[in-house]
Write the structure tokens for this entry.
Amino acid sequence: MIKIEKLHKSYPIGKDSLHVLKGLDLHIKEGEFVSIMGSSGSGKSTLLNIVGLLDGHDEGNYYLNGQLIENLDEKKAAILRNKFLGFVFQSFNLITYKTAIENVALPLYYQGMGRKERQEKAMKYLEKVGLKDRADHLPSELSGGEKQRVAVARALATNPKVVLADEPTGALDSATSDSVMKLLKDINREGMTVFVITHEEDIAEQTDRIVRLKDGVIISDEKVNKKVNA
Amino acid sequence: MFDLDRWREIFQTLSKNKLRTALSGFTISFAILLFTLLFGVGNGLKHTFEEQFAKDAINSVYIRAGRTTKPYKGLQSGRRIQFTNDDSKFMNEKFHDEIEFFSPNIERNNVQAIYKGEQNRYTVRGVYPDYQPLESAVVQDGRFLTYLDLERRAKVIAIGRLVEEDLFGQLSAIGKNITLDGISYKVVGVFNDPGGDNDERFIYTPFTTYQGIYKPNNEVDRFGLTFNPNLSIAKALKFSNLLTKMLKEKHDVDPRDQSAIRVFNYAERTKNTKILMVGLNVIILFIGIGTLIAGIIGISNIMVYIVKERTKELGIRKALGATPKSIVGMIMMESIFVTALAGYIGLLVGVLSLKILGKSLEEYGILNPSVETSVVVGATIVLIIAGTIAGYIPAKRAARIKPIVALNDE
């Protein structure tokens, strides 16, 4: 689903440039539940931005759904994002003046879907995240956990190939964190590829595969041994 | 292309961000309102000037005689100059092309007019039929004097509207006989005159009739004429200067003598007023353009601020699959919609206030303050275009920002 070969990325800082990603190789197959672990500055956010087509890369190859990503202009990137990717951000990034259901329906609007169909679909996904009764609330009227679940519903609305979650629990307390992680697990169980970025060990451990990143290189890539519930 | 969904999105954004919408709308409304008011008041001043002009034909020249103040060619100063019929002939021969209407004039003041029991005193003038356009008199009843009256030395008169009112009350004066200083004249016409009450209390009678009765030696009191309206102001002034010079020569008056023969050319006044009007127009234009520029700067600033404020929202939209084109389109459509609506409101308020205030401004010398619709609509369109450009530049920039940068914008 996601295939990265020798990926390099640096950011200009004044006259110098900061080499953030130093030749990453990563292959994520369809239906995987992967987390990228790393402290701040390890390059994990940069990696997510490149994978999420929010930012370009300097060197190396990136295949999304088998398609080589190159010479991407803004328009093509927007269409690919809309079609293949769903985003969940640490700070939720809901549009403040839109209700929960309108936020969920927004990516469908950009797909050109009709209004009625959008509403139905958005409601279906809100129901899936357990917020059907909060559909007409503004983000300011929702709790952090609820906001993040709206964001998950929005990420799912277009039925993407991959859900990218950037520190999805970073702004949540541990109880709500668990509920959001459970939601992501459920989605994954239904076959969705889920790609989580986190610096929290216990969050990473809830995924199936942990890729550890340090100073722009992958230092480990291992399957998680599921603890058997007694 | 009308895209209902797109408009729905725009209406939602506008109505959910009322302060922002009101702020940008207010700038535009206010600019257009100011523009309309200033232009309206400026036009009102212009109308006042124009009305002042309507009192008499603007191409009139009046010629009077007085006493000499300088000795000349062996003649003493203090000599009285008297025009005669010969001067009429002289002028008409010399300036055939320059003169449009011409009338000699005999004027007698304080003439007692009697009709049945009513009586009053008026100024009576013996004139040619040409005198009517000179005074801008408008016949309201009957007719003015004719050349036939002149030929027959008919004892007929045309009276001002107020003379009829004074002597006849509600009745019509036409066909009635009025006695002027003991001689009976038949009223053939009633006129009104935009010059006002004074001009509507004149009585006109054929020049020949009056000269025959009161001026046995063909004397003429003064002359009135209008110059050919095709003449430029400069040419008209040149004409009256030449006329003055030739009349002075004819009557042996020192060319530098200012009081023996006095020629008053309205072109002189026209010239001054025209300069004033041009000045006024420049000021109005300056104020108008200034207001528009202020409006343009205002809307540009607000657009920059709005786009800046929305950077994060635009980033979210982009992450969700909005293309740069759709972002730019959205911002522009919002901006055009707000500017057009607000401009229209400003226009309506401005035009309405001019209508309401119009009457009360008259006493301050501002007559019928109004604006040509095309001017205000033009100004509104200018602001809409400015708003569009002002929205386009930051929108384009915002659409180009990488979504990741926009998302991190707090």
